[in-house]
Amino acid sequence: MSQTQTITQTQAPNVPQTLVLKNPVQAEEDYRYSHLLPHFSEDRYPPLEPFEHVDPGQRALTHPNPRAFLENATSVVELTPRLGTEVRGINLAELTADARDELALEVARRGLIVFRDQHDFIDRGPDFYKQWGSYFGRLHIHPTSGHPAGYPEVHLVYRDANSTFNFEIAESTTSTFWHSDVSYELQPPGLTTFFLLAQPTTGGDTLFTSQVSTLQKLSPPFVTFLRTLSAVHSGVEQANFSRAGKRGGVVRREPVEHVHPVVRRHPVTGEEALYVNRQFTRRIVGLKKQESENILNFLYDHIDKSGDNQARLKWEPGTVALWDNRITAHSAIVDYGDSKERRHGARITPQAERPIPALEGLKLD
Ligand SMILES: O=C(O)CCC(=O)C(=O)O
Ligand SMILES: [Fe+2]
């Protein structure tokens, strides 16, 4: 039997938390992806160094048809008008460099693209995942999450019959917790790839929301004000949660805090997106505590309840989802606990540019 294990990265206060144990999950011979089960290495990493990100989507802007990579698809369905496209009939793993540039641009435009029937991609394994992700940017190594042994660049989510969310569910009315991945980094992720290796029979969908649409729902004078603001994003609570003895876990890189614009501009599409999230944004710089809390809580509430900006991904075996972490937020849905079925996902997380303020010249301390 494998040891108790559940891995997540939702580690802010008052948020559904999952149990994280240090012990590597024991390989199960009858599980096809047992070589990708989570492992908690004690490796330590130095602080991340800044790097220059060249966005692959930029190159596609000059292609004669920036959507040429979709030409051989058997089906292209828009999940909602502004967010999400579902594609069938394309083998992602075989895309040329030009096609990958076009893919990056299309994900930037649609926020989320879901590719079905990608068993070839998934079965190529972790060396291929790294090669795939490196094309889009420097691969992020998560400071606290589990990864397949020897592949720290592959962030895993995991739950099975031996893990428990019970006390977490008891502490929260919902598992819905909108976030943008590791936004505390100086250069947070851009084009992100995520897929499930094992999934419950039903449930365990993933929610997405467009932070471009979220912003566009706000009144022009309020957006004008938001553009002048920056906010602190922090990885401290995530690290503290992991360090907390009773939940085990590791901290491989010391936590960081960074200040990002509240409204960021996408480097390729030029679109403006709201860039705050409940998980990592802590306070708006220069405002009084109550002002900051009220504005952030209003924005979180707006993100939470705007079903008109959201799409819900129902996983099928072989699905690979790509999202642009700069202009979307997402949340896992933990509604399958009673089934005791395994859910095992892998994320490849290329970092992108330091967030560009929508207001030119905004000072970021
Ligand atoms: O498990 C999911 O559906 C989402 C996981 C997630 O938020 C992530 O890996 O970034
Ligand atoms: Fe996430």
TrEMBL record:
<protein>
    <submittedName>
        <fullName>TauD domain-containing protein</fullName>
    </submittedName>
</protein>
<dbReference type="InterPro" id="IPR003819">
    <property type="entry name" value="TauD/TfdA-like"/>
</dbReference>
<dbReference type="GO" id="GO:0046872">
    <property type="term" value="F:metal ion binding"/>
</dbReference>
<dbReference type="Pfam" id="PF02668">
    <property type="entry name" value="TauD"/>
</dbReference>
<keyword id="KW-0408">Iron</keyword>
<comment type="similarity">
    <text>Belongs to the TfdA dioxygenase family.</text>
</comment>
<feature type="region of interest" description="Disordered">
    <location>
        <begin position="340"/>
        <end position="365"/>
    </location>
</feature>
<dbReference type="GO" id="GO:0016706">
    <property type="term" value="F:2-oxoglutarate-dependent dioxygenase activity"/>
</dbReference>
<keyword id="KW-0223">Dioxygenase</keyword>
<keyword id="KW-0479">Metal-binding</keyword>
<dbReference type="InterPro" id="IPR042098">
    <property type="entry name" value="TauD-like_sf"/>
</dbReference>
<dbReference type="InterPro" id="IPR051323">
    <property type="entry name" value="AtsK-like"/>
</dbReference>
<keyword id="KW-0560">Oxidoreductase</keyword>
<feature type="domain" description="TauD/TfdA-like">
    <location>
        <begin position="77"/>
        <end position="349"/>
    </location>
</feature>
<dbReference type="GO" id="GO:0005737">
    <property type="term" value="C:cytoplasm"/>
</dbReference>
